[in-house]
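Notebook B, p. 112. Complex prediction, attempt 2.
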Amino acid sequence: MPELPEVQTVVNSLHPKIINKKILSFDLLWNKTLYTNNLNTLKSEISKLPEIISINRHGKYIIIKLNNKFIVFHLRMTGYLYHSININAKSSYIRCFFTLSNNSYLIYEDIRKFGGFYYLDNLNVIFDKTGIDPMDINFSFDWISKNIKKRKKMIKSLLLDQRFICGIGNIYADEILWLSKIHPKMPANNINANKVNKLYTNILKILNNSIKYHGTTIINFKFDNMKTGTYKNQLTVYGRQNQNCKRCNNIIHRQKIAGRSTFFCKFCQKY
DNA sequence: ACGAATGTTGCGGG
DNA sequence: ACCCGCAACATTCG
């Protein structure tokens, strides 16, 4: 579910609500939600009432900076991070929550329990396992052009590889490849300069456009107070198997590629 | 009714 | 380097 546009949407919605707030306490309801094994440290440091200095995103990671620590959330498939002035007792999937100044809460829900957060001194472990973020100033046609040549794997798999570019997931990979007219199984180093240029442009175009629509909600993605993203209505290939290609009218195929459901047009996305 | 599939990541094995 | 299958877990789909 949450890929770069969805994570950016969550960050944008949280920023005005939690910035400069102090954390008063922390409650952990599902143990594995704390990825780092340092609950005691976290509890004792939070007793000193740290302030939330900033909230940002890197790839699909939400980075909340405290005075001298970082809380780094990853929503995985079904994570839902939001701010509220009360805890709804009917919410069955709350995995942890931070009580903030003003008696409000930063709440983390997660149906499938895959998501969670790291409590860190620095961001090394995060940056070690992520490549460049598409919104980074250094992400350019030159960067992708230079680096894509070194990679032989199929482009779909490369786009999903967070150590290469971070933030793209299964939905946007398919959307980007369709718009760029690139076959998902095309070896990355076989893509010609013209197509690489399209790929570069379309990564930014699609991700930025989706952010404008607050991301894609197919089933679970939510932000703020139960709000959903509406980019689903803009999807051109993802989920459209057996329907007509919006460009050439041929049938959209669905096939498992790189271990993931992949949607593409065999006619206008050629090898 | 029950196995398969779901938008993520990390690991182990070939 | 690359590819695959599986695991983490809950719910829905066919």
